[in-house]
Specification:
- The structure is a single chain.
- By secondary structure, the chain is an alpha+beta fold.
- It has four domains: 303 residues, ABC transporter type 1, transmembrane domain (ABC transporter transmembrane region fold); 99 residues, no CATH class; 182 residues, Rossmann fold; 51 residues, no CATH class.
- It has an eight-stranded antiparallel β-sheet. A six-stranded mixed β-sheet has the order 14-15-16-11-17-18, sandwiched between helices.
- Helix 7 packs across helix 13, helix 8 runs antiparallel to helix 11 and helix 9 packs across helix 13.
- The radius of gyration is 43 Å and the shape is elongated.
- The two termini are 55 Å apart.
- About 1% of the residues have low confidence.
- The chain binds adenosine-5'-triphosphate.
- Adenosine-5'-triphosphate (ATP) binds next to helix 14.
- One of its GO terms (cellular component) is plasma membrane.
- Keywords: ATP-binding, Membrane, Nucleotide-binding, Transmembrane, Transmembrane helix, Transport.
- It is found in: Cell membrane.
- GO terms for molecular function: ABC-type oligopeptide transporter activity; ATP binding; ATP hydrolysis activity.
């Protein structure tokens, strides 16, 4: 598997993962509980709105024709428990609210209460003694106070009502509308305010958790050893710290609480529906199996589609990461067309997978919508009929249509949530996998501190080392470098010279043998002390964002400006730096001056010197510097390397002839050791290398002469 390949799917039921995610949420449990409580209140305000309208319809718009009670005016007190009574002539009337009317309040009122009702017959309104169905077909006979309403097997004495009297009965409707309107407004404003508070609290919590995880990730990455970075491309790690944590944030701040909210909505709606009408609720639930089938289908199909999309996206990402970092090579070798073709292919596949996803969603969402509307159709058919029969009020049917919609909304957005959860779970798994990865190179439990004055004696004692198991890069390497000595490593490409340098720094640990610094196994030393004792100048110099001075002292506050300048002077960079617009404060890189390769190396020298290490390592450090400057640097080196152990890896043998000891490497083994003259006298491998380079030089000189 390519190191760019990514894991793309994880089983949501994975308990381990959930436990770890929960562990991060636990410190915020108070906030999360508060958010869930707020969610509950928001649901209440959401669900209250249709109910308020239902009450407005049933008790006020249609309330006039609801059953009423009447008593003689002087006994009006008896009606108190039903509401405010209206006195007309010698009679007190009270209108019942829908619930009381439906539950047949008569039992509570006792027989002495007269049941009355406002009934419309033809153009006129009558106050009839007795209760009839609202749609009963009646005719009025007689006149004045002697009217009788007959029809449908009933005969009721009635009184004709003029418009003014009807308005009297309507009075309480107007105050009712005002009250309900105010209540509706409170529900709307309350809902909005609560949502605002909840969203902010959730974001705060989510961001806080992510802030912590990001910090931990960065700290953790800082401890990882070189082999880890060999395996993990930088692009991927950047995605871990930025993108994956963000999707996890979404999970904490949106998905979890919203899922709880949706659940409360569904339960809440069911309860309200059941309370309003068991029959209608039963009818609504007829569509549930259809919905369940749809959801199961969707889960299966979309899971696969989304998994495929994530795989392709990961591939696209790694393709991009690889190609953008190697863009110069692509351009140099005129491979743009071929790369573009590959990219198009991948991009096309991703597009197709994306479209498939879209198609599935565009089927699922309207399908759920359709089932919802089917439920509404059933509601109109059955509910409408029941309203006419007087079995259900119009307000209930109206409220049901709203609740059905609210019931189906969370189901419709299931797609989005499913995707969010999957992405977040994948992100979470990657993050926890990363956090769970132990740094392979760490301090011993009780490391032996280095003495303040490091002597700088380095010893390799039968060292075996492989980057990858079984592929030995160093085989039984032994040598000893005395304190203050200058030692050079030479050998063909791939002989293992740079590996030796990396091992001294403990970027990797060896498999067999021992490496000692001042007689102590480096694995027993505190890592930071070991690395502080060593400075390395490499061929590739990394510059950080910042000015020249901070790039030399690497933000080490203990290093003074004078020391920085002194170091720059020693590598003959001082003059160049002074010429820059802001001197030592000139920013480097995009925002400031760009350094040439040679200048970068000089800066890297200054960096190494300023830290005053006991051991200085130069790994191909002068390969980018012109001969003239190299002479200067060599000169500086002589000063610097005095009383310091200095290790030099070089291909140009001319630069290392003065070394106290030269170690010749060949295929991971020490082939020869000695100083320049001893090695030449040996007439071995070194001699051959020297001859080859010398011949080259002679040829160069002859060619120059010939010109
Ligand atoms: N990070 C790494 N992971 C795996 N293998 C590596 C790694 N670095 C180097 N190698 C392998 O180790 C061997 C020795 O490499 P090393 O860089 O030590 O050689 P070198 O003598 O310094 O060569 P050069 O003169 O080209 O710098 C090579 O075969 C190389 O492929």
């Amino acid at each position: 598997m390519s190191i760019h390949a990514e894991k793309t799917s994880v089983d949501i039921k994975d308990g381990q993962l959930l436990k770890k995610m929960l562990a991060y949420a636990i410190p915020h449990w108070k906030m999360i509980t508060l958010c869930i409580t707020l969610a509950f209140l928001i649901v209440v305000t959401d669900l209250a709105r249709p109910y308020i309208i239902k009450v407005a319809i049933d008790d006020h718009i249609n309330g006039l024709h609801k059953p009423m009670y009447a008593v003689e005016a002087e006994q009006a007190d008896r009606l108190k428990s039903y509401g405010k009574s209206i006195v007309i002539g010698g009679t007190a009337y009270v209108r019942l609210d829908a619930a009381a009317a439906e539950s047949g309040a008569s039992s509570a009122g006792g027989e002495a209460l007269r049941k009355v009702q406002i009934v419309e017959v033809g153009e006129g309104s009558y106050l009839a003694e007795g209760w009839v169905a609202p749609n009963a077909k009646l005719t009025a006979e007689g006149g004045g106070s002697e009217v009788r309403l007959t029809g449908e097997g009933v005969q009721l004495p009635a009184v004709y009502l003029d418009d003014a009297t009807i308005s009297g009965f309507r009075d309480r409707d107007f105050t009712g509308f005002l009250m309900l309107g105010a209540l509706f407004l409170i529900a709307v404003i309350g809902g909005a305010v609560l949502s605002y508070v909840q969203t902010n609290l959730l974001q705060y919590t989510g961001q806080h958790i992510i802030y912590r995880i990001r910090g931990e990730l960065f700290e953790h990455l800082g401890k990882m050893s070189a082999s880890f970075f060999d395996r993990n491309p930088v692009g991927r790690l950047v995605v871990r710290v930025t993108q994956d944590t963000e999707s996890l944030n979404q999970l904490y701040s949106q998905v979890i609480v919203n899922l709880v909210k949706d659940f409360i909505v569904l339960i809440g709606i069911l309860i309200i529906m059941l309370q309003m009408s068991v029959k209608l609720t039963g009818l609504m639930l007829v569509v549930i199996p259809l919905l369940a089938a749809l959801t199961v289908w969707y889960r299966i199909v979309v899971r696969e589609a989304q998994r495929k999309m994530r795989i392709l996206l990961a591939r696209l990402n790694s393709f991009l990461a690889e190609n953008l970092s190697g863009i110069r090579i692509t351009q140099l070798f005129v491979r743009e067309e071929r790369q573009l073709e590959q990219f198009r292919e991948l991009n096309g596949e991703h597009y197709k997978a994306g479209m498939r996803n879209t198609v599935i969603n565009s089927v699922f969402q309207p399908a759920v919508g359709f089932v919802g509307n089917l439920a509404i159709a059933l509601l109109i058919w059955y509910g409408g009929g029941s309203v006419l029969d007087g079995a259900i009020t119009f307000g209930i049917v109206y409220a049901f249509t709203h609740y059905v919609r609210q019931f189906f909304n969370p189901l419709m957005s299931l797609a989005e949530k499913y995707n969010q959860i999957q992405t977040a779970m994948v992100g979470a798994e990657r993050i926890f996998e990363l956090l769970g990865e132990k740094p392979s190179i760490v301090d011993k439990e009780e490391p032996k501190p280095l003495p303040k004055q490091v002597r700088g004696e380095i010893e390799f004692d039968h060292v075996w080392f492989a980057y990858n198991e079984g592929e030995w890069v160093l085989r039984d390497v032994s040598f000893k470098i005395g304190p203050g000595q200058t030692v050079a490593f030479v050998g063909a490409t791939g002989a293992g010279k740079s590996s030796i340098i990396q091992l001294i720094n403990r970027f990797y640990d060896i498999q067999k043998g021992t490496i000692r610094l001042d007689g102590v196994d480096i694995r027993d030393l505190p890592l930071d002390q070991l690395r502080r004792a060593i400075s390395v100048v490499q061929q590739d110099v990394f510059l950080f964002n910042g000015d020249i001075a901070s790039n030399i002292r690497l933000n080490e506050a203990g290093i003074t400006d004078d020391e920085v300048k002194e170091a720059a002077r020693m590598v003959h960079m001082d003059e160049f730096i002074r010429k820059q617009p802001l001197g030592y404060a000139t920013p480097l890189g995009e925002r400031g001056v760009n350094l040439s390769l040679g200048q970068r190396q000089l800066l890297s020298f200054a960096r190494a010197i300023v830290f005053r290490p006991q051991i200085l390592i130069l790994d191909e450090a002068t390969s980018n510097i012109d001969t003239e400057t190299e002479l200067v640097v060599q000169d500086a080196l002589k000063t610097i390397s005095k009383n310091r152990t200095t290790l030099i890896v070089a291909h140009r043998l001319s630069t290392i002839q003065h070394a106290d000891q030269i170690i010749v490497m060949h295929k991971g083994k020490v082939r020869e050791t000695g100083n320049h003259y001893q090695l030449l006298a040996l007439k071995g491998y070194y001699y051959k290398l020297f001859e080859l380079q010398y011949k080259d030089q002679k040829q160069d000189m002859q060619m120059q002469h010939a010109r």
